[in-house]
Amino acid sequence: MAARSKLAAVVTAAGLCLASAAAAAEADRFVVIGTGGVTGVYFPAGGAICRLVNREIDTLHLRCAVESTGGSVANVDALRDGDISFGVVQSDVQYDAVKGTGPFADKDAFDGLRSVFSLHAEPFTVVARADAGIATFDDLKGKRVNIGNPGSGQRSTMEVVMAAKGWAVSDLGEVSELPAADQATALCDGTIDAMVYVVGHPSGAVQSATADCDSVLVPVEGPEIAKLIADHPYYREAVIPGGTYRGNDADVATFGVGAALLTTESEDDETVYQLVRTVFENFDEFRKLHPALAHLDKNEMVSAALTAPLHPGAERYYREAGLMR
Ligand code: GLU
Fold first, then answer.
1. Which pTM does this prediction carry?
2. Which residue has the higher pLDDT, 260 or 9?
3. How many domains does the chain have?
């Protein structure tokens, strides 16, 4: 036990240091889940998964840790480079990774990407300062907008929306690329007029943005959005329920994607099987670990919003559990 704690300390201190990971492998197998900003939902969702896995450390010898990352695109790149074992990824970014399009247009199709299960819905969420005069997406023209850091999913989806609208970056007044966790502060400080986040609800970031100053959720709809939904299987209509955030009592219509946990073909079957089993066998508890996970449904998780082929370790569990035939 003492040796294990010491290893954990080394691993925690060194983060992704490969030497530490190799040392940990002698005692326990070590897996890292790439997530997103700490005030998003990926980070606590990854934490919920790891919590259930780590509880069985004595029998599984599997140690799970989460890493805060730039988001979906960064997670796909880290999976491709072998820097993380698992990563949470938006369904549109997942599709682009499998096809070698969008943010991965200069890379090969990622044939080794594998699905584990899908997670929560992520509405495309625009939050504006109440005093900025932004009531619709089109009002963002000429305003100071945080379009997201380049490794994030929101940046990728925002670029799709802007292309659908025929906008160039110059149509916005000023563009920033702040990481997700810094957006709410920038909004309430008045450094930006609006932020864009593709995120489950409730999220810490939108909670701060609406609690620390007066901010409004902005609807994202119209013919261009309807066409995006019609043309792409991974986009769908979405609603951010009224009352989720302070000062925003009405439902807000937008479109959205789904989040999924992904891995690669090189991850071993037993590790993936055990991770899936711990989540699905403790499902009620898992759903309570974050309010954005509360509505998850096992049958949807094994089928919806997954583009990459299922990892065989996950498939083994789903067949055993009668979730797949
Ligand atoms: N969807 C965001 C992204 O892919 C992350 C959201 C979150 O961290 O919950 O970058």
1. 0.91
2. 260
3. 2
